[in-house]
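Quick review question:
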């Protein structure tokens, strides 16, 4: 097998047809090994913030094998099973005791879509069928189904050419330091939306408490959360948190919600729930949301093939055991602030680095135009891809986003190491990433000598 695979050489339908995909053979801890002998330091948990325990965790592998020997699958419509029942109980006792019920899905897009449908069902069951509109921040990513794609306001980089298929949701400009450092402008925009569409039509506000792919490690200021909570209770819409990335310890607490002055009604979790050893996500809701269904039609008819199946739920139980027994959420909480400071110090002299953000083991680096230290880099530079490619050449896997054309954010880089990363491995990640940025900076400065100043953030 070759070290890279191109579209012309495979029967797979790849995401990017012009990309030569490195061929991964195996993983050990936070290291990836390619078929041509390269050793890559994994600084973003499998590339999608999933493998929070690292690769090759024997306890989880053995649990999956044991469950497969008993029974791997049957349809949740007809039966329940011990792993599903036990995992649900553990989640509402150990992880999120403020929640009452759990519905399992196969992945984050399914979980977020289920959360939208649960919010809608809640209002219908309570005799308010006019409530269907959803409001969410514009600079967001919540999934790739049409329902979840509509939650983003990134029309150019995500929604084209599928806009005709998407529900009409409403979006706020993000309350970032560039746009709105206090959060008051976002609250005023929320008030305008509510006034224009009518409070009685709003079902939910849907957001990440700490953003991941779209705006790494960003969270609005506390005033925004306080104002959102007050409006939700006044007008009767639900708060839905997408914690597919931030949940299960990624930001140093079981849920990011536990760090904020707001109480969501519905929460989704996913990537760290099975840590990359099986496809698994979940929707958690508070008692009043469940009661609306229980005291109404007594039916929430939504199912996918693998929802609550024995094998992925057994994996989830094993992952939770590892997280608890090794006190890994505490490890992320205690080590995270220092990791952010080390990253900030390593990047301090770079002219293309703006804000360096971080909560726990979720870190974000904003790239800016070095000529004014504020504007986005020119769209056509696609500096995010340059960072990814350069990092890989230096033996480091990171994840970057490029949504400059939408006007809310420029090039952003995300680091999300496994909770099991040693201090020495974290130091290597920081060192290799600093070398990456230094190399990219040189390339950017060369290119900018021939280009006008980059795109300023939207007002």
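Suggested answer, residue by residue:
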């Amino acid at each position: 097998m070759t070290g890279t695979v191109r579209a012309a050489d495979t029967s797979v339908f790849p995401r990017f047809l012009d990309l030569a995909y490195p061929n991964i053979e195996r993983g050990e801890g936070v290291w990836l090994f390619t078929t041509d002998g390269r050793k890559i330091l994994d600084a973003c948990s499998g590339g999608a913030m999933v493998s929070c325990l690292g690769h090759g965790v024997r306890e989880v592998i053995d649990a999956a094998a044991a469950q497969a020997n008993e029974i791997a699958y049957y349809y949740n419509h007809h039966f329940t099973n011990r792993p599903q029942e036990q995992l649900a109980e553990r989640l509402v006792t150990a992880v999120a005791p403020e929640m009452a019920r759990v519905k399992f899905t196969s992945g984050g897009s399914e979980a977020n879509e289920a959360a939208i449908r649960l919010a809608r069902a809640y209002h219908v069951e309570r005799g308010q069928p006019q409530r269907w509109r959803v409001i969410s921040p514009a600079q967001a990513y919540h999934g790739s189904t049409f329902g979840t794609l509509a939650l983003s306001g990134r029309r150019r980089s995500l929604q084209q050419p599928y806009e005709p298929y998407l529900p009409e949701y409403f979006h706020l400009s993000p309350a970032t330091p560039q746009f709105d450092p206090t959060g008051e402008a976002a609250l005023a925009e929320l008030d305008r939306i509510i006034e224009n569409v009518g409070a009685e039509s709003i079902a939910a506000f849907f957001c990440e408490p700490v953003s991941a792919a779209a705006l790494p490690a960003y969270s609005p200021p506390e005033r925004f959360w306080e104002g959102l909570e007050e409006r939700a209770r006044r007008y009767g819409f639900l708060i839905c948190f997408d914690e597919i990335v931030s949940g299960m310890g990624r930001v140093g607490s079981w849920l990011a919600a536990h760090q904020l002055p707001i109480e969501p009604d519905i929460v989704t979790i996913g990537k760290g729930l099975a840590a990359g050893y099986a496809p698994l996500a979940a929707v958690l809701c508070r008692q009043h949301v469940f009661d609306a269904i229980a005291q109404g039609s007594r039916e929430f008819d939504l199912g996918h093939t693998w929802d609550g199946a024995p094998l992925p739920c057994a994996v989830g139980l094993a992952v939770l055991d590892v997280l608890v027994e090794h006190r890994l959420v505490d490890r992320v909480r205690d080590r995270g602030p220092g990791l952010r400071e080390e990253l900030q110090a390593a990047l301090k002299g770079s002219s293309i680095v703006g804000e360096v953000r971080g909560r726990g083991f979720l870190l974000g680096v904003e790239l800016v135009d070095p000529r004014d230290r504020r504007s986005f880099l020119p769209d056509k530079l696609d500096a995010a891809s340059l960072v990814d490619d350069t990092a890989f050449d230096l033996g480091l896997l990171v994840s970057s986003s490029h949504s400059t054309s939408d006007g809310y954010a420029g090039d952003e880089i995300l680091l999300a190491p496994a909770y099991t990363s040693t201090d020495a491995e974290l130091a290597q990640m920081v060192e290799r990433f600093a070398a990456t940025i230094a190399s990219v900076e040189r390339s950017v400065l060369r290119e900018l000598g021939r280009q006008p100043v980059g795109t300023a953030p939207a007002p």
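Why it works: The mean pLDDT is 95. Residues 423-448 form the longest helix (26 residues).
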